[in-house]
Specification:
Length: 59
């Protein structure tokens, strides 16, 4: 498997080209777990920010 520009080439062990695909039309779509991780990190950051803000207010 080799990339050249916007094309993907599948090459056999002997060096002959088996298939070629144009990959310029594909877009990366994140998995749902990626969104969950970002949401979790945001919630953790928000909780830390609120705790720090409450601590400053009490002093």
């Amino acid at each position: 498997m080799t990339f050249y520009g916007d094309s993907l080439y599948l090459i056999s062990p002997r060096g002959t080209q088996l298939h070629s695909y144009d990959v310029s039309g594909f877009t990366a779509i994140p998995e749902p777990s990626t969104y969950a991780a970002l949401l979790g990190a945001g919630a953790l950051g928000f909780a830390c920010w609120r705790r720090r803000r409450a601590k400053i207010t009490l002093n």
